[in-house]
Specification:
alpha+beta; 434 Repressor (Amino-terminal Domain); 2 domains; nine-stranded antiparallel β-sheet; 9 strands
């Protein structure tokens, strides 16, 4: 699980409500055993979130919780946390890129079902990610709070980019940048593109 400050929890929760229009603050408050004003305080960054509450919130929004495998087989990126990647269109192709639990047996907080691998197809994030490398995604983490490196899609291309939520933006907007100057910074609403997952490392083929 990515450690988050109160402000980051606020942005994360706002983004979840933006993505899940059918969910309400009152429903979440009932799940947490809190009064609705407590959820409003979280959204405003005025209330801390306990680990148990964060787990309940993830479950409430249909996100994986703490059933996870480790990243022992991954060559981790030094994260601060859209360049072209090749997505596999057939389910059978996608399945063969999932990381088996046996390969990542130690401690982590990412379920094997949430892990996916993509090939980097350009150099706009070099020197950190270069064309021909393979990156590992946590597909359960699709809100850039905290900010970081994500795989994103504009419905036509899949790319690797630095993403960060624009503070106090309503509706929520995301600043998208790259490491090379050829890419022009963009600021988009969450509804205008898709975040496929957070980049958590690289694959080191033996």
């Amino acid at each position: 699980m990515h450690p988050m400050s109160e402000i980051s929890y606020s942005d994360w929760l706002k983004a979840q409500f933006t993505r899940h229009k059918d969910k309400t603050k009152a429903d979440l408050a009932r799940e947490l055993g809190l009064e609705p004003p407590a959820v409003s305080k979280i959204l405003n960054g005025d209330r801390q979130v306990k680990a148990r509450e964060y787990e309940i919130m993830r479950k409430f929004f249909g996100l994986p919780t703490h059933t996870r495998t480790s990243r022992a087989a991954l060559n981790k990126d030094h994260t601060p946390q859209k360049n072209n990647l090749r997505e596999h269109e057939e389910d059978t192709d996608r399945d063969q890129w999932l990381i088996p639990a046996e390969i990542t047996p130690n401690s982590s907080t990412i379920s094997k079902e949430a892990l996916s691998i993509c090939e980097v197809l350009d150099n706009l994030m070099s020197p950190f990610f270069v064309k021909g490398e393979y990156v590992v995604l946590d597909t359960s983490d699709n809100v850039p709070s905290p900010e970081g490196i994500f795989a994103v899609s504009d419905k036509f291309n899949t790319m690797i980019r630095d993403c960060a939520i624009v503070a106090k933006s309503t509706p929520i907007k995301v600043k998208i940048t790259a490491r090379q100057n050829e890419f022009q910074q963009q600021t988009l609403k969450l509804s205008e593109f898709e975040i496929l997952g957070r980049v958590i490392g690289k694959v080191n083929f033996l």
